[in-house]
Amino acid sequence: MNDELEINFKKIAILGFLGFSSGLPLALTGGTLQGWMAAYGIDIRTIGLFSAVALPYSLKVIWSPVMDRFILPFLGRRRGWILLTQILLFIFISSVAILSPLKTPLLLGTLALCISFSSASQDIVVDAYRTDILTEKERGPGVGTFLTGYRIAMLTSGAGAMVMAGKIGWEKTYLIMAFLMLFCVLWTLLAEEPEGKIQPPKTLQDAVILPLKDFLSRKSAVLFLLFIILYKLGDAYAASLTTAFFIKEVGFSASDVGAINKGIGLISLIAGAMLGGALVSKLGLFRSLFFFGILQAISNLSFTLLAIYGKSYILFAISVIFENLSGGMGSSAFISLLMGMCNKNYSATQYALFSSIASFGRTLISPTSGFLVEKVGWIAFFPITALIAIPGVLILFPLKKEIERL
């Protein structure tokens, strides 16, 4: 049978809307909320404290076993939880719309924390649903479509919400975002149930222990963990300072960076995710991870040319497009791998664990980037980030047979 006939396009399209649902709440407790507080004259210390509401995204692996163990009495194992988190998000986001950062900062902070917790919970179960529902042939296109929806949602609740707030006010903006969240319920209701027999853990203790036991009993488990940490490390290390590089070192204005790095960059990232998803199905997972990993490393070197040459809008645009295109392709292949590594009986816990491990490495190394730039300069910094990406590519070879079996 032709590969295309093996792909359920309705399923893929619905994953795009579920990606939108996952991405929408993120900025509403981050940059957009900071913009609202700053507009109301809230002091910088309070705004800084509010960044702590993002903590649930880093800790979601702790309660992910609950979503593997318990099945709600409606819509099946995954969609029931998705529906519940979406309704909670609608309630919390719409409640924020009636508050004032000046009059009720404590209540606003509590609701922002509730939004983050509900959003992180939605991420857990949507990631698990995506893992359970997609066949091997559908993983690449499914992940690409999901990431596209996710990025569009971040743009909507980030830059889109900020523009909207300037015209209709913050309260009405948050209310509109709440109803966009409610609209996503429709796609949860239309989504299909995963096929095949899945056996949930019988106890909460099993839901915690069995996913770890299942993964650690596999051949090359330690190598897989190293790969998860290393694969996107060079890409993330370079990205941690690119905005500062464009403004402080090269001399572009904030509006230049917004238009090219954030605007064209976002379009390139979406294109990369879609292209990468399509190529994963054609090339296979191992070759996709290898080629996209090489491209990610090379793309970092394009910023070295900008550091040498100086201010050039053409070179700026080429560097941003190349970096985001290759990064999007790498993300599609990497997420496809994480999904393939999950046992569907424990996909919520295992995917949350793998994604937390991946972000841990990036979080650990990124704060050192500024010190490295001071030591070696920008021209040497980006080649070093390219070298940091190489171990993540080389470790693929001892894992080749295991990856091809996924």
CATH topology description of the largest domain: Growth Hormone, Chain: A
Low-confidence stretches: 1-5
Distance between the termini: 21 Å
Sketch the topology as an H/E string, one letter per element: HHHHHHHHHHHHHHHHHHHHH
Strand content: under 5%
Shape estimate: globular
Gyration radius from CA atoms, angstroms:
21 Å
Specify the CATH architecture of the largest domain.
Up-down Bundle
Number of strands: 0
Derived from helix and strand composition plus strand pairing, the structural class reads mainly alpha
Number of helices: 21
- What helical percentage do the residues reach? over 70%
Q: How would you state the average pLDDT, rounded?
A: 85
* Sheet with the most strands, sense and barrel status: none
CATH homology superfamily of the largest domain: MFS general substrate transporter like domains
Descriptive report:
It is globular, with a radius of gyration of 21 Å. It is 80% helix and 0% strand. The protein folds into two domains: 3-198, MFS general substrate transporter like domains (Growth Hormone, Chain: A, Up-down Bundle); 206-405, MFS general substrate transporter like domains (Growth Hormone, Chain: A, Up-down Bundle). It contains 21 helices and no strands. The chain has 406 residues and is mostly helical.
